[in-house]
Amino acid sequence: MIRLLRTGLSPYRWLIVLVVFLVFGQVLASLYLPTLNADIINNGVVKGDTAYILRVGGIMLAVTLASALAAIASVYFGSKTSMALGRDTRAALFRRVQGFSQAEVNRFGAPSLITRTTNDVQQVQMVLLMMLNVVLMAPMMAIGGVVMALRLNVPLSAVILVAIPVMGVFIGLVIRKAMPLFMSMQKKIDRINQVTREFLSGVRVIRAFDRTAYEERRFDVANLDLTDTSLKVGRLFALVFPAVTLIMNVTTIAIMWFGGRQIADGSMPIGDLTAFLQYVFMILFSVLMATFMFVMVPRAAVSAQRIMEVLDTVPTIVDPDQPVGGVPETGLVEFRDVEFRYPGAEEPVLSGITFTARPGETTAIVGSTGSGKTTLISLIPRFYEVTGGAVLVDGVDVREFSQQDLWRRIGLVPQKSFLFSGTVADNLRHGDEEAADELLWHYLEIAQGRDFVEQMPEQLETHVAQGGASVSGGQRQRLAIARALAKRARIQIYDDSFSALDFTTDARLRAALRKHTADATVIIVAQRVGTIMHADQIIVLDDDGTIAGLGTHDALLESCETYREIVTSQLGVEGVA
What 3-state class would DSSP assign to 287? Predict the structure, then answer.
C-alpha cells in the first residue's frame, strides 16, 4: 500500500503539504482552547472581571473559527487529493490492462480485473481521504495532548501511560485477525462479479435450458459466502468501539478520582482539572479516530496489494526498443516453422506451421474443433507470441513492428463478433473514424447488411446494445465484417465469420468480398467447406496442430485424407466425387 501511495501521490505533493499545514493549524487551535478555558475558570470568574472574560472569550471564538476554517480547507484539499489518486490509479490500471496479451488477461480473469479497477481502487481512495483528515490529525493531537497534560500535572498523566498501551494491544490483535478475512473478502467479491457476468452474458442460454433456478442457487452460494465473511469482519470490529469507549470512560473516572483528591488537598486548581480532562479526551479521541482508520486500513492494504499485482505485471508482448518503420504495406503474410504452446503447457498447440498468404489471394484454414485455427490467426496480430519460428508481415517479423503499426495493417473479424454500445455508425467508424455516411453504406452493402440497417428505426443512428445483444447473430457478423472493411487494411482476417449466415447470403457476401478485396490478402477460418472451397489455397490442420494438407480444393481431395473426411461429412460422397 505504501508503494502505491508513494507512486500515485507524487504529482500532488504540494496539496499534501498544504493539508498537513492546515491540520497542524487546526490541532494547535484545538490544544490552545482548554488552556484559555482553564484561565477563565481559575482567574476570570474568581476576580469577577467581565472584561477579561469577554477578551479571552473573544480569543476563544476567533481560535474556534480559525480551527473550523482550517478543518474545512483540509477536508476539501484532502478530498481533492484522494479523488485524484483514484482517478490516476484507475487510468493506470486501464492502460496496463490494455497492454496485456490474452495470456495475462486469462491469468487474472475479467471479473477480477473489473473488481481491482473499481472496488479495490475505491477502498484505497477512501483510506487516503481518512489518512489526510484523521491519521494526520490523530498523532499530532495525541502528542500535543500528552505534552499539554504533562505541562499541567505530571503525576496525573500516569493514567494515560496505562490506557494507551492497553488500547494499542487490543487494536493490534483485532487487525491481525482481520487481515486474512479482508483478503478472502476481496476474492469473494471477484466471485460475485464472475457469476453475475456469466449470468448476464449467457441469459439466453440459461432461459433456453430452463436453468434460472440453478443460476439463482449458484449466485446465492457466492452471495452467502461473501455475506458470511463480511459478518465475521463486522462482528470482529463490533468489539472495537465498545472496548475503546470502555477504556476511555474508565480513564476519565480514574482522572476524576485522582484529580479530585488533588483539588481537595489544594495541590491542583479546578480549572487545571477541567483542562486536563479535555486534553485526555483529545488524546483518547485521537486513538479512537485511529481505531476507525484501523478498521479500514487492512482491507485497503489488501486492495492496494491486488492493484500492485496488476501494475507490476509486465506484459509478455511489448513493442521492441527500436521498432521497424517505413515498411510498405503489401499484405504478404508468412509463417516459417511456427510453434506455439500456452504458458505451462507440456505440448504445443501448433507446430511446424509453414505457409505463405499472398496479396490478391484467399487463404482458407480448416480443421476439426480444437485443432488451433483461431490460435493460428491470433499469432498474426500478436495476440499471442510465437514460442518457435517466426510470423512475418510484409517481409518483417511481427515482433519487430510496433504493435500499433502492426494492427494498422490488419482488418480482423473475430470468431465472436463483438459490437460496442453506441450507434451502428459508431461501431462501423471503429474501422475509420472519418468515414462519411455514404462510405458506411457502401461497406454495409458489401457485407450484405444494408437491407436490415435501412429497416432499423434510425438506420445508421440506431442504438446497438453492448455486445450487439439487440441484433441477431447473422446481423452482428455482417456489421463486424463491414467494420473490418471500413479499415481498408491490406490483410483481411475472417475467423469463422460466416457461420451465422444462410448459404445464399454467404455466397453473395463472398462474391462481393472478392471484388472489394482483389488486392488484399484474405485469410478465412471456416467450418463450412462451401465457404472456402474456391479459395486459392486451403490449409488443413490436424488434431495435433500440424498441417495435414495444403493446396486447392481439388488437390486436397486427391492428397489429404483429413480434408476428404471433412468434405464427406458435410457434402456426402457425391460432394467428394
Answer: helix
* pLDDT tens-digit map of 55-101: 766 777 777 787 778 778 778 887 888 888 888 888 888 888 887 77
Q: Which three cell numbers stand for residue 351?
A: 507446430
Residue 570 phi/psi, 5-degree rounding, is -100, -40
Place of cell 463486424: 480
b/e string for 475-506 if b means 16 or more Cβ within 10 A?
Answer: bbbbbbbbbbbbbbbbbbbbbbbbbbbeeebb
pLDDT band for position 46 (cuts 50, 70, 90): very low
Element (H, E) at 78: helix 50-98
Q: Over 70: is that where the pLDDT of 4 sits?
A: no
Same domain, 263 and 407: no
Residues 13, 466: Cα–Cα separation, whole Å = 40
Question: What is the percent of the chain with per-residue pLDDT over 90, rounded to a whole number?
Answer: 0
362 forms bridges with which residues in the sheet? 522
Which has the closest alpha carbon to 103: 390, 317, 311, 338?
Answer: 317
Shared domain for 104 and 180, answered yes or no, is yes
Residues with Cβ within 8 Å of 51's Cβ and at least 6 positions away in sequence, in order, are: none
Smallest CA-to-CA distance from 106 within 325, 378, 290, 488 is with: 378
Listing DSSP states for 334-380 in one string gives: EEEEEEE--TT-SS-SEEEEEEEE-TT-EEEEEESTTSSHHHHHHTT
Q: Residue 394: exposed, middle, or buried by beta-carbon count in 10 A (0-12, 13-18, 19+)?
A: buried
328 within some domain:
no
The CATH number of the domain holding residue 183 is 1.20.1560.10
Q: Which triple of cell numbers denotes residue 314?
A: 509486465
- Of 120, 26, 133, 25, whose CA–CA distance to 79 is shortest? 133
> Which DSSP string corresponds to 387-409?
SEEEEEETTEEGGGS-HHHHHHT
State pLDDT tens for residues 305-358: 888 888 888 877 777 878 887 788 888 888 988 888 887 777 888 888 888 888
- Angle between helix 158-201 and 270-311 (nearest 10): 30
> Which ranges of 99-152 does DSSP label H, i.e. alpha helix?
102-108, 110-115, 121-130, 137-152
Residues in the chain, total: 577
Classified as helix, coil or strand, 422 is strand
Which are the contacts of 514, defined by CB distance < 8 A and separation ≥ 6? Answer: 362
- Asked whether the beta carbons of 352 and 548 are under 8 A apart, the reply is no
- For the residues of 434-477, what is the DSSP string, one character each? T--HHHHHHHHHHTT-HHHHHTSTTGGG-EE-GGGTTS-HHHHH
Amino acid letter for position 314: V
- Residues 254, 258, 263, 268, Cα dihedral to 10°: -100
Verify that 81 and 141 share a domain, yes or no: yes
Please name the residues in contact with 274: beta carbons below 8 A apart, sequence gap of 6 or more.
34, 37, 38, 41
* Cβ-contact 412, 379 below 8 angstroms: no
Domain annotation covers residue 320? no
The SS3 of residue 42 is: helix
* 300, 371: one domain: no
Whole-angstrom distance, CA of residue 313 vs CA of residue 104: 8
Of the candidates 527, 538, 545, 524, the residue with the CA atom closest to the CA atom of residue 371: 545
List the domain range (segments joined by +) for residue 56: 2-311
Judged by phi (left if over 0) then psi (alpha if -120 to 50, else beta), residue 63 lies in alpha
